[in-house]
Amino acid sequence: MAGICFIGLGNMGGPMAANLVKAGLTVTGFDLVESLRDAAANAGVKTVTQLTEAIEGADTVITMLPAGAHVLSVWREIVPRLARGTLVIDCSTIDVASALQAHELATAAGLRSVDAPVSGGTIGAKNATLTFMAGGEPKAFAAAQPILEKMGAKIIHCGGAGAGQAAKICNNMILGISMIGVCEAFSLGERLGLSHQALFDVASTSSGQCWSLTSYCPVPGPVPASPANNNYKPGFAAALMLKDLRLAQDAASATGTATPLGTHAQELYEAFTEAGHGAVDFSGIIAHLRRQSRE
Ligand code: NAD
Hints:
Blueprint: E1 4-7, H1 13-22, E2 27-30, H2 34-42, E3 46-47, H3 51-54, E4 60-63, H4 68-78, E5 87-90, H5 96-108, E6 112-115, E7 118-119, H6 121-127, E8 130-135, H7 138-148, E9 152-159, H8 163-191, H9 196-203, H10 211-214, H11 238-255, H12 260-277, H13 285-291
Parallel strand pairs: 1-2, 1-4, 2-3, 4-5, 5-6, 8-9
Antiparallel strand pairs: 7-8
Helix pairs in contact: 1-6, 4-5, 8-11, 8-12, 8-13, 11-12
Residues 7-13, 30-33, 36, 51, 64-66, 70, 73-74, 92-93, 118, 121-122, 236, 240, 243 line the site of nicotinamide-adenine-dinucleotide.
C-alpha cells in the first residue's frame, strides 16, 4: 500500500487519521487549520500545507469535511490529479445529491469511490469504535473495508453510490425524533409526579425502550454517562442534529416522502438552536420542551 491521504483533521478526522497511523499505515494529512495539522503531526501523521501535495503518491484518499460543498470542492480539485484506480472515500455526513455527484466525478475519472459516513461521535473516532455505513460498488467497498476497520468496529455495506449517506440520515432522523419523544415523556412524567428513575426503570424494560432512553437518557441520574449528568455538554451538539435533520428533510422533499415527525423534529431543533443552544448537547432540548409547558 503506497499510503493514505487524509483531508480534514477536525474533531472526527484528527483521531481517525491517528488510528490509521496506530494501525501501522503511512498517512499524509491536510487541513486548512494549522493547529489541527500540528495536532495530527504529534499523532504521527505526516502533514503538508497544500491539498495537492497531500495526495502525491496516495493510493487511497479519505475526506472528513463539514458539508457537501466542502467535499465537492476538494474532490473537484483532487480527482483530476489522482491515478486511475485510486480509492476515494468520503466519511463526512453530506446530502445524498452531493454524494452522488462526488461518485460521478470519481468514476468518470476511473477512480473507485465509496461514501462512508459514520456514527459514534468523537469518542468512537478516538477509540476506533465507529460504525461506518458505506455506499459504492462491491469492489470499491471491498477495497475500503480493511481501511475502515482500522477506524471502526462495525462496517456495513448499505448498497450502491449514496446508500451510506441515505442510511446515515434515516438513522439520525430516528434519533432526533426518538430523543424528542423521550424528552416529552420525562417532561410529562415530572408533571405527573413520577420520579425520573421510576420512569426509566419501566420504559427501559418496556415498549418505550430505545437508544435515546437507555444510552443517552436526557435527565440526570439513570444513565450516569449521558450528557444530562454533565450539564448537557456535548456529546452530539444540537447544531449537528439540526444539520442531519435538514439533510433528511432535503432528501424527503426530493423524493416526495411524507415524514411529518421528521419535519417537526427539524422545526423543534431549529427553535432550540435559534434560541442560542446550538452548542448544547441535543438531549438538552428537554429544557426547551419544559419551557413550552403551561405554568
Ligand atoms: P470539524 O469542523 O471539527 O472538522 C472538519 C474539518 O474540515 C475542519 O478542521 C476544517 O478546517 C476542515 N476543512 C474544511 N474545508 C477544508 C478544505 N477545503 N481542505 C481541508 N480541510 C478542510 O467537524 P467534525 O466534527 O470533524 O465533523 C466532520 C464530519 O463528520 C461532518 O460532516 C459531521 O457532520 C460528521 N460527523 C460528526 C460527528 C461528531 O460528533 N462531531 C459525528 C458523526 C459525523
